Amino acid sequence: MPMNSFSVKSDDELALMAANDDQEAFACLLGRYNTMIHAKAVAKSRLCGCDVTDDMSQEAAIGILKAVRSFDPSEGVSFRTYADRCVENILTSAVKSYFSGKNALFNAHSQLDESAVCARTDISAGSDPEGYVLSGESESEILSELSELERAVVEMRLRGMSYDETAKALGVSTKSVDNAIQRVRQKFRLSKRG
């Protein structure tokens, strides 16, 4: 379906299409919410006392994804209202997490050296990190260790989406997708030690 045909669809219709793995519908829906996402991300970033707007924007995009997955029009609430609440909830949780120090890797904005991580985890730089992550451990154990962004990135990569497609669907940069994969590698390298 051409992207311009999505412009005549309501948010509710796009959400239902996106819930059925229509990536173009999700991208269109995310585009409609970019202003809201940015505004909420800036506001929450200010609460943290430093510029974490990009991180908050990524979390807000995850909130839209969660809203798409759980939206039920029979509940009598519009998708816009539901998505707004989902984004607000996930950003509030991200701010609490930021102040509690629970996600130190995320808060520190650490950049991992891929070759060093690969050397320590026996993953070649060109191999599939998601396949590595899922080998030998149950999916639920693995997913419980990941942040919302990391979980969404892994899920999309497991569906066969490229870094670019994943970035577009989540409304983040390709570098953010790569960073999420690097954090996944780091977390599971640490968990395999312990």
Give a quick precis of the structure.
This protein is an all-alpha fold and 194 residues long. It contains 13 helices and no strands.
What report would you give on this structure?
This protein is mainly α. It folds into two domains: 7-101, Rna Polymerase Sigma Factor, Chain: A; 110-193, Orthogonal Bundle (Arc Repressor Mutant, subunit A), CATH 1.10.10. It contains 13 helices and no strands. The chain has helices at residues 3-6, 11-19, 23-32, 34-48, 53-70, 79-100, 104-107, 114-121, 129-134, 139-144, 148-158, 163-170, 174-193. It is globular. The N and C termini lie far apart (48 Å). 34% of the residues are buried.
Q: Helix coverage percent of residues? A: over 70%
Structural class by secondary-structure content: mainly alpha
- Estimated radius of gyration: 17 Å
CATH architecture of the largest domain: Orthogonal Bundle
Give the overall shape: globular
Q: Total strand count, please? A: 0
CA-to-CA gap between the ends? Answer: 48 Å
Chain-averaged pLDDT:
74
Largest sheet: none
**CATH topology title of the largest domain:** Rna Polymerase Sigma Factor, Chain: A
Which ranges are low-confidence, i.e. pLDDT below 50, for 5 or more consecutive residues?
103-130, 132-140
SSE succession:
HHHHHHHHHHHHH
* Strand residue content: under 5%
For the record, the CATH class of the largest domain is Mainly Alpha
Number of helical segments with 4 or more residues:
13
Number of domain modules: 2
